[in-house]
Amino acid sequence: MTEHTGQAGTSSAHSATQDAVALRAVGKSFSAHTVLRDVTLQIPARRIVAIIGASGSGKSTLLRLIGGLDTPTDGAVNIDGRAVAQYDPRCAFAFQEARLLPWRTVADNVALGLPRDEDRARGRTRIGELLELVGLTEFAGHKPKEISGGMAQRTSLARALARTPSVLLLDEPFGALDALTRLRMHDLLLDVHAAEPTTVIFVTHDVDEALVLADTIVVLGKEEGRPGATVLQTVSPSQQRPRSHSDPEFTRLRQQLLAALGVQLRSEA
Amino acid sequence: MSQHHSAAGAPEGAPDDVTHAGSGAAPGTAAHGHATVASGAPGAAGPGSGTGPGSGRARRSGRRRGPVVLLGLLVPAALVAAWFWSTAAGVFTPVQLPPPQDVFTAAIDLIERGQFFQHIGISTQRVLLGYAIGAILGLAVGALVGLSRLSDVLFAPTIGAFRAVTGLAWVPLLALWIGIGEDSKVTLVAIGAFFPVYTTVAAALRHVDAQLVEAGRAFGLGGVKLLLTVQLPAAMPSVVAGLRLALAQSWLFLVAAELLASSMGLGFLLIDSQNNGRTDRMILAIVLLAVLGKLCDSVFALVQKRVLDRWT
Ligand SMILES: Nc1ncnc2c1ncn2[C@@H]1O[C@H](COP(=O)(O)OP(=O)(O)OP(=O)(O)O)[C@@H](O)[C@H]1O
Ligand SMILES: [Mg+2]
């Protein structure tokens, strides 16, 4: 299990393959408040990317820009070579909050995620499968107020998956889950990713989670004396998944990432 | 553990070909170094705080209505008893306050004359008709103002100003313009019903949880679909509350209309009895208004409960 290729990737090796998501010098300000500055990222298709960073460093903001929920102040965001549209239909979003429609059952909330042109019968089958995947079959008929926060989060995840998007954007999708459910959801995400040609970008506070799941980890943070957060470093573990926590590389990267976040925290204070 | 190897390496290209170029930022670090640190460090970095939806999971335990209703009748019963006692003891003259049995007799008398149900019928008809018109207009205008910034800016101040005019103030003008027939009364009731509906609908639609609306849009909803899927259902509880308020207000406006210009109805019964010195009938009219208004409201409360169950 701890086998790894040995040749850790050399940094900044531009691939010839089409980048699924490309951010070019993206900046975002809210009135005078600069949140993101000069973010440039190229994410090849089918990659799993984790975004980590201190609270308030603009992770959600960055994800929203990629999904077309907000427009950048500077720069450009492209998906498959085309500019991101408002509420881009190529993306599916799982918000940091579950954001379920309170009057709809769990199943009907997941159904909201189905592509608009989905055939009814096929859609119902798909919802059944997704509920099974996130372990909520029993709760299909429950209203959001009747389920726990973690269940709501899984419903929100299933809703995003229902869209079979080419870019899946997940904002702290496993935040409210217990350790065991969290591991199950990690497996689920990897299974879904293996089964469908999806580029996954997710936000997490958990360095270990990032290291277990992601092909590449993007650290967002402030640079001394400059406004707004930008990409401080990107890290790409060479280990194959499933990754062992005891692998030397895992331990090293973990320390490196924690240091990056820690430094950030200290400089903020 | 399930097999994830297939997913790990993604298609072609080195696994780290996600690249970035922040100006002057630290370069991507992915070099494979010599790790000497002991393995198996415990997991750090606590989980983020995912906030679930509104908590309140508990369901009100229903099916205890009977005793509650009986309890609610306690005070009216006590009032009637006090009324009975005070009139029997001669605290009030019959002209000031006739005893309950006189009021009852007055009701029987009116029933025999065929006027009792005529008064009730015409008043109820005016309320229902006016309420329907006012509520429909309130829904339409409220939706317009609540959903469109432009209409909000254009119309809201004017409507707000008209709302400040009390119902009674309209009576003379309506009598002048529409005459003293049915139309003017129904119109006044409609005015009374319009404002509560308009106000609540506009406010509810304007304040639909922006996060839910955004979620709807993110999943491809827009326009009418968004309205039907997210905005209207979200506003539903407030809309129904507004409709209920409007029904109560319809009865208030009805009396105003009938007091000043009418030849039938409970308001007319009230003013006519005053002119004839029939306190018993005045009290009867008031009791009937109270009972009818409360009855309407109770029926609506049942509807409201169902709506709340369904839409929250
Ligand atoms: N709509 C907005 N208007 C003004 N400021 C905003 C808006 N959205 C985000 N911000 C600001 O942008 C900054 C980054 O917010 P963001 O939600 O992206 O942080 P985050 O990294 O996701 O934090 P967390 O880990 O706590 O979720 C914050 O300072 C926030 O106040
Ligand atoms: Mg966030």
TrEMBL record, chain A:
<feature type="domain" description="ABC transporter">
    <location>
        <begin position="21"/>
        <end position="247"/>
    </location>
</feature>
<dbReference type="GO" id="GO:0016887">
    <property type="term" value="F:ATP hydrolysis activity"/>
</dbReference>
<dbReference type="Pfam" id="PF00005">
    <property type="entry name" value="ABC_tran"/>
</dbReference>
<protein>
    <submittedName>
        <fullName>ABC transporter</fullName>
    </submittedName>
</protein>
<keyword id="KW-0813">Transport</keyword>
<dbReference type="InterPro" id="IPR050166">
    <property type="entry name" value="ABC_transporter_ATP-bind"/>
</dbReference>
<dbReference type="GO" id="GO:0005524">
    <property type="term" value="F:ATP binding"/>
</dbReference>
<keyword id="KW-0547">Nucleotide-binding</keyword>
<dbReference type="InterPro" id="IPR003439">
    <property type="entry name" value="ABC_transporter-like_ATP-bd"/>
</dbReference>
<keyword id="KW-0067">ATP-binding</keyword>
<dbReference type="InterPro" id="IPR027417">
    <property type="entry name" value="P-loop_NTPase"/>
</dbReference>
<dbReference type="InterPro" id="IPR003593">
    <property type="entry name" value="AAA+_ATPase"/>
</dbReference>
From TrEMBL, chain B:
<keyword id="KW-1003">Cell membrane</keyword>
<keyword id="KW-1133">Transmembrane helix</keyword>
<feature type="transmembrane region" description="Helical">
    <location>
        <begin position="160"/>
        <end position="180"/>
    </location>
</feature>
<feature type="region of interest" description="Disordered">
    <location>
        <begin position="1"/>
        <end position="62"/>
    </location>
</feature>
<dbReference type="GO" id="GO:0005886">
    <property type="term" value="C:plasma membrane"/>
</dbReference>
<feature type="domain" description="ABC transmembrane type-1">
    <location>
        <begin position="120"/>
        <end position="301"/>
    </location>
</feature>
<feature type="transmembrane region" description="Helical">
    <location>
        <begin position="128"/>
        <end position="148"/>
    </location>
</feature>
<keyword id="KW-0472">Membrane</keyword>
<dbReference type="Pfam" id="PF00528">
    <property type="entry name" value="BPD_transp_1"/>
</dbReference>
<feature type="transmembrane region" description="Helical">
    <location>
        <begin position="186"/>
        <end position="205"/>
    </location>
</feature>
<feature type="transmembrane region" description="Helical">
    <location>
        <begin position="226"/>
        <end position="245"/>
    </location>
</feature>
<keyword id="KW-0812">Transmembrane</keyword>
<protein>
    <submittedName>
        <fullName>ABC transporter permease</fullName>
    </submittedName>
</protein>
<keyword id="KW-0813">Transport</keyword>
<comment type="similarity">
    <text>Belongs to the binding-protein-dependent transport system permease family.</text>
</comment>
<feature type="transmembrane region" description="Helical">
    <location>
        <begin position="67"/>
        <end position="85"/>
    </location>
</feature>
<feature type="compositionally biased region" description="Low complexity">
    <location>
        <begin position="20"/>
        <end position="42"/>
    </location>
</feature>
<dbReference type="GO" id="GO:0042918">
    <property type="term" value="P:alkanesulfonate transmembrane transport"/>
</dbReference>
<feature type="transmembrane region" description="Helical">
    <location>
        <begin position="251"/>
        <end position="271"/>
    </location>
</feature>
<dbReference type="GO" id="GO:0010438">
    <property type="term" value="P:cellular response to sulfur starvation"/>
</dbReference>
<dbReference type="InterPro" id="IPR035906">
    <property type="entry name" value="MetI-like_sf"/>
</dbReference>
<dbReference type="InterPro" id="IPR000515">
    <property type="entry name" value="MetI-like"/>
</dbReference>
